[in-house]
Amino acid sequence: MPKVPFRIAPMLATLVDSPFTRPDWIFEEKYDGVRMLAYKEGAKVSLISRNAIDRTDRYPKITEAIGKLQPDTLALDGEIVIFDDKHVSRFQFLQQSDGQPVFAVFDCLYHDGKDVRTAPLSERRRALERAVKPSANVLLSARLDRDGLKAFEVAKRRGLEGLIAKDLASKYISGRSGSWLKVKVRKEDEFVVGGFTEPSGSRHFFGALLLGVYSGGKLQYVGKVGTGFNKDTLRVLYKKFATLRKPRSPFSVDVKERGATFVAPKLVAQIGYTEWTSDGKLRHPVYLGLRDDKDAKDVKRQEKR
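Predicted structure:
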């Protein structure tokens, strides 16, 4: 059976504060889903998450669609998403299995026996377009406008999470890179769940989640989130807490929340918010779902360039 001779961690974009435009850069839609590397080796297809967990069985239609692509060997990088009725990807739809997952592919790392990671992005994109014929379950990442400032306005108008800017001359390198930059329209990030508060009123199970990010090896408290839950998510999360409860706080500072119960910092939640406050707390946070594609220890506040 033909083989792709590597399994790698994905290339990651660096957050920047504001939109920009540069010659020989492209500006793509930023998808709000789950990052995935796909490997096609003859008839065998593997979908591997960014924390190296095999998710092939979770997305059978995507697996089948990749298996039908013409090249005998492929390594593809992309995002598994579910779109709303305006063709905007929404992480909470994926979390709730509300719709048909689609693999939005934005890079080709290996193609018919050839490792193309050291080739410029412009060449890898051409290989990608030759290899992938869009279908109901696999599509090519959307480019917005050649001008980065106009691309940002398109992203704002459509209500996208943001955009990804990429240097067309860049090689594919695992880890955080300055050759891929991201600008957010909707603020969303991952946070570690370190506890919960008691419910009040008609709320059952718990009131809010206590959230944190790691800095210098310590879990910093960034506030609580009490909105974005329905009865099912409250129940499912509370059940997960049963084996994680701890008598002591995992946070590096005292958390002055009445009726707080602490848990081992194992769960990672996707949270939408409007901004950070001056004292390092989230303003207007909303729970979007749990992530199982990122380890809690890797959750850090992303510093802007």
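Summary: The chain has a mean pLDDT of 95.
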